[in-house]
Amino acid sequence: MGVLRAPFTRFEYSEHSWRARRVLLKIPHTIMSSISLPIFGQGSQPAEVDGVALEYLPMPQEMTTYSMPQVSADLNALDLAQAKSILLKLQQDLAAFPSISAAIELTQLDAGNRRFIDELLGEGEVSVICSGEQDTRIQESVLAGVWRLQRLNARRQIADDALEVGIIPQQLAQSAANGTAAQIDTSWTELPPGVMNAPPLLTELNAKIADYRPGGEAHTINLSLLPQTEQDLEFLAQRLGGGTVTILSRGYGNCRITATGTRFVWWVQYFNSDDTLILNTLEVSDVPSVACASPEDIADSCERLQEILKVYL
Predict the structure, then answer these.
(1) What is the secondary structure of 125-148 as a DSSP string?
(2) How far apart are CA 94 and CA 66, in angstroms?
(3) What is the mean pLDDT of the segment spanning 23-29?
(4) Beta pairing class for 126-130 and 277-284
(5) Cα separation of 43 and 22, whole Å?
(6) C-alpha span between 267 and 243 (Å, rounded)
(7) How many angstroms separate the CA atoms of 277 and 176, rounded?
(8) Is residue 20 within 8 Å of residue 251, measured between CB atoms?
(9) d(CA 286, CA 212)
(10) What angle do CA 258, 260, 262 make, to 5 degrees?
């Protein structure tokens, strides 16, 4: 076949993902209108007599959007029967969602078909590392809700390679729960110096953990709005413990999500383009929603894959 180059499609400049929209709702913004609301914010008020200017933390400047993938021109469609079979199965799994589908194995692919799949699926907004006896690397593809799972052996080589369709890979939630404590230890005889506001938060978290059921509504504690000392944050981290799952979501700025050593409790931190922390939260949930694809994302991915199949195969 000729050069494998995609034409512009109706998805080329599509809106950002539903995940990114949820992030926008979580990060506070100044809403201004010239019609019905008075205008407040930087530059809207007279300068101070002492010359001090109001300053704001810069918000993220970039947002991930979808564009049609580009694949190498030297690949021949006649040699891509394995890849075509996998993509057709992936199309079926996307169309069948929310029915749970079995993982699609990629381990058996030859070099050419693997390269085609690699280039076609690319890397999307969310990356995950699940640590354990055998680490698992999870990468969302450019098709939201299509996840690449690679289990690594002791030499850091790929032992298993598979695709999975879903809101979040099943293994992620399972790995996050492995070896975690059911409650936070709140027994102490004396608090460390500088710790003032962390103990009530631990009590609140224990109550929310006890009430939480898988699939339930998340509970978020916004640490950025609370008077927390450095010692408070260190004490929280020490009492919650360290988990085995780390997630990076790049839909809007950077969101770093870390499983704690306590079941259902996650650190969720949002950073702007300068890598400055702008929102620091603790969340009680199965997996924070900012890392998850949505049903709308998966429906979009189903349509996009149809476009891809028409162009390349």
Answers:
(1) SEEEEE-SSS-EEEEE-SSTTEEE
(2) 17
(3) 57
(4) unpaired
(5) 29
(6) 10
(7) 24
(8) yes
(9) 9
(10) 150
pLDDT class of 51 with cuts at 50, 70, 90: low
* Residue 179: closest CA among 245, 263, 246: 263
Q: Would you state the structure tokens that stand for residue 262, as one six-digit string?
A: 């306590």
Give domain limits for the chain: 176-291
Q: What is the pLDDT of residues 142-162, one digit of tens each?
A: 999 999 999 999 888 999 999
pLDDT at 6 exceeding the cut of 50: no
How far apart (Å, rounded) are the C-alpha atoms in residues 169 and 148?
Answer: 9
Q: Is residue 282 classed as helix, strand or coil in its secondary structure?
A: strand
Q: What is the model's pLDDT at position 2? A: 39
Tokens of 146: 């299509």
pTM value surpassing 0.85:
no
Given a cut of 60, whether residue 5 has pLDDT beyond it is no
User: Is residue 176 within 8 Å of residue 131, measured between CB atoms?
Assistant: no
Average pLDDT for 241-246 = 96
Question: What DSSP letter does each residue of 194-218 carry, written as one string?
Answer: T--SHHHHHHHHHHHHHH--TT---
- CATH class assigned to 176-291: alpha beta
Q: Is 286 helix (H, G, I), strand (E, B) or coil?
A: coil
pLDDT of 166 strictly over 50: yes
